[in-house]
Specification:
Elements lengths: L14 H9 L4 H10 L5 E2 H7 L5 H13 L3 E6 L5 E6 L1 H33 L1
Length: about 120
C-alpha cells in the first residue's frame, strides 16, 4: 500500500489492512517508541534524528508527516529564528502504547528463537 493512500482500494473497510499498512512500516513504530521514551516532553526533529541514527532526514520527515496525518503525532511550530518544531504523541497514541509495549516485550522474549530459525532457513 502506498503511504499516501487513505484506504486500501480492494478492501476499504478492512481496519487491519488500512491501519497497519501505514503504522507498521519500517520506521513508524520506532518513531513512536522514541517519542514515548521522552515521556510527555515534546521532542525536536534533530533529537529524533540523533535517537534513530540510521533514518535519513527525508524518511524521518515523511514518517512524521504520515503519523501526523493519522493523528498519532502532533507537530508544533514556534515562530522563532531559526524555527523550532516539536513533536509529541497524541492521546490516541497513548492508548496504543500498551499494545506496542506488549509487541516489544514479545520481540525481546522471542528474538533468539526467531534469529535461530532465520539462520536455519538460510542454510537450506
Amino acid at each position: 500500500m502506498d503511504r499516501t493512500m487513505i484506504e486500501d482500494a480492494l478492501y476499504p473497510d478492512c481496519p487491519i489492512r488500512n491501519i497497519l499498512a501505514r503504522l507498521c512500516d519500517k520506521w513508524s513504530l520506532l518513531v513512536i517508541y522514541t517519542l514515548n521514551k521522552a515521556d510527555t516532553s515534546p521532542v525536536r526533529f534533530k533529537e529524533l534524528q540523533r535517537e534513530i541514527p540510521d533514518i535519513s532526514q527525508k524518511m524521518l520527515t515523511l514518517t512524521l508527516r504520515t503519523l501526523e496525518e493519522d493523528g498519532y503525532v502532533t507537530r508544533t511550530v514556534y515562530p522563532e529564528v531559526p524555527p523550532r518544531v516539536e513533536y509529541a504523541l497524541t492521546p490516541l497514541t497513548y492508548s496504543l502504547l500498551p499494545h506496542i509495549n506488549a509487541l516489544i516485550g514479545w520481540a525481546i522474549e522471542n528474538k533468539d528463537a526467531i534469529m535461530k530459525d532465520r539462520k536455519k532457513a538460510r542454510k537450506k
